[in-house]
């Protein structure tokens, strides 16, 4: 990916509980000292744009959807240590630095063979490991933006007016999806065994889901880049 693609790799709106404080050169150096390894240049660029969160891009065949940032919030690149996982796998975990995962699987920077890390996928439950890419740049080249089945409508109408017009044209009532899933409204139209989904092209810059431990703190955050009432053409 080029610099522009790296700057636009993050999904909007930002899921604020996954967003760390802005990454400074000092914080990056401290993180690398703590890890005992230098991070790939491309990852450092990504985290300087947005310090953790969900991605717009997908990795075919793997459950990647987010990348950890550097800081005190969860998930964090530095606030992780292998524990019970050591008893579940037959391979060495030292030298693997997870940057995405859910406890059952992890995508890791693999420093076991070189200080220029490969990207490895490990499945703790199945005791499996595989090398996905020889370096982080090659890993990024595997990511794809899923635009299949998506079209952009230029209507001159707002979202609710567009929904009403589509209901009239299609002869069906739209059902609203839970806005907490993505941080914006989505309307689904079911007809003839198919499904049409309508979502806005302007969204909040960030959001937090009710019930999250830090919801009250984050919903009133005004510190960049967490202004909840800002709107951006970022999708």
Structure explained in plain terms:
The protein has helices spanning 3-7, 25-35, 41-49, 136-142, 159-170, 215-219; strands at 14-15, 53-54, 57-58, 66-67, 96-101, 105-110, 118-123, 128-133, 144-145, 175-176, 187-191, 194-198, 203-204, 206-207, 231-232. The chain is an alpha+beta fold and 235 residues long. The protein folds into two domains: 3-145, SMI1/KNR4-like (3-Layer(aba) Sandwich); 159-232, no CATH class. It has a four-stranded antiparallel sheet with strand order 5-6-7-8. The model is unreliable at 222-235 (pLDDT under 50).
Q: What gyration radius follows from the Cα positions, in whole Å?
A: 20 Å
Label the CATH architecture of the largest domain: 3-Layer(aba) Sandwich
The shape is elongated
Reading off the top of the CATH hierarchy, the class of the largest domain is best stated as: Alpha Beta
Number of domains: 2
Structural class: alpha+beta
Work out the helix count.
6
Features:
235 residues, single chain, elongated, three-stranded antiparallel β-sheet, SMI1/KNR4-like, 22% strand, 6 helices, four-stranded antiparallel β-sheet, alpha+beta, 2 domains, disordered C terminus
Q: Mind sketching the topology for me?
A:
Blueprint: H1 3-7, E1 14-15, H2 25-35, H3 41-49, E2 53-54, E3 57-58, E4 66-67, E5 96-101, E6 105-110, E7 118-123, E8 128-133, H4 136-142, E9 144-145, H5 159-170, E10 175-176, E11 187-191, E12 194-198, E13 203-204, E14 206-207, H6 215-219, E15 231-232
Parallel strand pairs: 1-14
Antiparallel strand pairs: 2-4, 3-9, 5-6, 6-7, 7-8, 10-11, 11-12, 13-15
């Amino acid at each position: 990916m080029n610099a522009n693609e790296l700057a636009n790799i993050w999904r909007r709106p930002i899921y604020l509980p996954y967003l760390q404080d802005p990454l400074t050169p000092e914080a990056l150096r401290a993180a690398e000292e703590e890890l005992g390894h230098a991070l790939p240049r491309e990852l450092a660029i990504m985290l300087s744009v947005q310090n953790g969160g969900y991605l717009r891009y997908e990795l075919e065949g793997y459950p990647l959807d987010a990348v950890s940032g550097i800081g005190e919030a969860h998930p964090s690149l530095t606030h992780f240590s292998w524990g019970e996982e050591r008893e579940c796998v037959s391979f060495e975990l030292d030298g693997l630095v997870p940057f995405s995962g859910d406890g059952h699987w992890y995508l890791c920077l693999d420093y076991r063979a070189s200080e220029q890390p490969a990207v490895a996928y490990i499945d703790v439950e199945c005791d499996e490991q595989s090398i996905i890419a020889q370096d982080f740049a090659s890993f990024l080249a595997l990511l794809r933006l899923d635009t299949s089945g998506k079209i952009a409508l230029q209507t001159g109408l707002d979202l609710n007016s567009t929904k009403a017009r589509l209901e009239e044209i299609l002869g069906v009532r739209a059902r609203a999806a839970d806005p907490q899933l993505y941080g914006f409204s989505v309307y689904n139209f079911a007809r003839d065994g198919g499904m049409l989904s309508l979502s806005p092209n302007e969204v909040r810059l960030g959001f937090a889901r009710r019930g999250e431990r830090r919801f009250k703190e984050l919903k009133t955050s005004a510190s960049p880049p967490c202004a909840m009432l800002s709107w951006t053409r970022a999708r």
